[in-house]
Amino acid sequence: MRDSAAPASLPFIKMHGAGNDFVVIDSRGRGRTVTASLARAIGDRHRGVGFDQLAEIITSDTADFGLVFWNSDGSQAGACGNATRCVADHVMRGAGLDRVTLTTARGTLQAERLADGRVAVNMGAPQLDWQEIPLAAAVDPQHLPLQGDPIAVGMGNPHCVHFVPDVATVDLATLGPAIEQNPLFPQKTNVEFASLISPCRIKMRVWERGTGITLACGSGACATAVAAHLRGMIGPRVAIEVDGGTLEVDWRDDGVWLTGPVARVFDGVLAADYVAAHQ
To answer: Of the residues 86, 160, 200, 217, which is catalytic?
Structure first.
């Protein structure tokens, strides 16, 4: 018989949505298994697995399942659109469903699989009040007092969206962390730079809070679409070109819908000694 005090190994799944990559750990039936220390260790691309975010599946009393998101620095994220789509696809396939509900810090969300295999999630209504985003002062979120006249949008996490002529020329590695930690954002912020290609297409690059430059960001795509619509640049529906592919955003009456591809890359198991060393 196994010693109950012995360290346990931990299964995981590696997934990505448009290059935005995730480790998925299912904690249902075993209690919460992820700690800040373990998330940092797994997020190390040299000594762990590596991810943009870690998505921990938990039991929910009000939906099919719940999600908790971890950044690679061990902090938690309130929302992650592409990880939500990936986990929804995993759960739907396991249960033989085409639609699920899930709970996050954002609230209860809906996800569904489309006929072409892509997965869509309703990320809810955008947060446009300065206190909800949140900002540190009562400034106009649509015209922040920062260089470049950016817009602040909350999607369950804060975003600072800049519109520029050509995103390829932006020094994201320098500007991203400086803006992320600007005192105007008490919880720090995700940072997006976007260029209008046409009235229905935008090119976006992103610096994610607690992670850095990523190939895609689902909540960032939603925030960028909302910001562009508020500025009168696009209609409610737009394709967002990111470094890892293309996402679609549709701002409807019931919320902001994010649609895109999902991929399951591999399944693995974290060794028991590794888990025990980083709990």
So the answer is: 217
| 222 tagged catalytic | no
Asked if 80 is an active-site residue, the reply is yes
Give the global pTM: 0.94
Dist. CA 48–CA 148, nearest whole Å: 38
Question: Which among 18, 44, 75 has a CA at the least distance from the CA of 205?
Answer: 18
User: In order of start, what are the domains of the chain with their CATH numbers?
Assistant: 10-123+262-278 (3.10.310.10), 151-253 (3.10.310.10)
- φ, ψ (nearest 5 deg) of residue 85: -65, -45
Structure tokens at 9: 């190994």
Mean pLDDT, rounded, for 30-46: 95
Whole-number mean pLDDT of the chain?
96
Asked if residue 210 has pLDDT above 50, the reply is yes
Peptide bond into 141 cis (omega under 30): no
